[in-house]
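G., the chain you wanted modeled:
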Amino acid sequence: MSLAGAALRGAPWKAAAVTGGAVAGTSVLLGLITGSADLSWALCVGITLFSLVAGIGAISKPDQGDRVTQQARRWSLRHPWRFALYPAAGSAILMYPVQLILDREGVFGAAWDAVWGGAMVYLITAVLALSMRSRAKKGNR
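Predicted structure as tokens:
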């Protein structure tokens, strides 16, 4: 897990935050216009996109950064299913209080929804990282 964390060290956090915030804001705005605003849904979609942009952005350029970061990114591209655990866990942890407080689902219902949201992030991140695997072949040492 420390290699996955090191790979995320150079993630595009600002771009991820802007993307997640813009999507969440747009979702709320469109919900207000149509009369079906759901703040918890909008925040969870924003958290999902935040995690995806940060995770995929971190490994999209494996040859940038210092030597340790480059090695961690190449490892992440060679082990996409292990790497995807970090963004998935982060998004599930962020979604849990949103589900618990805004949806008032209770402790177990909120945990169930957060785990499913994290599973979706896990699957998407791993598949995208798997498709980017050829980028790790350059420095395969």
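The chain has seven helices and no strands.

Shout if anything looks off.
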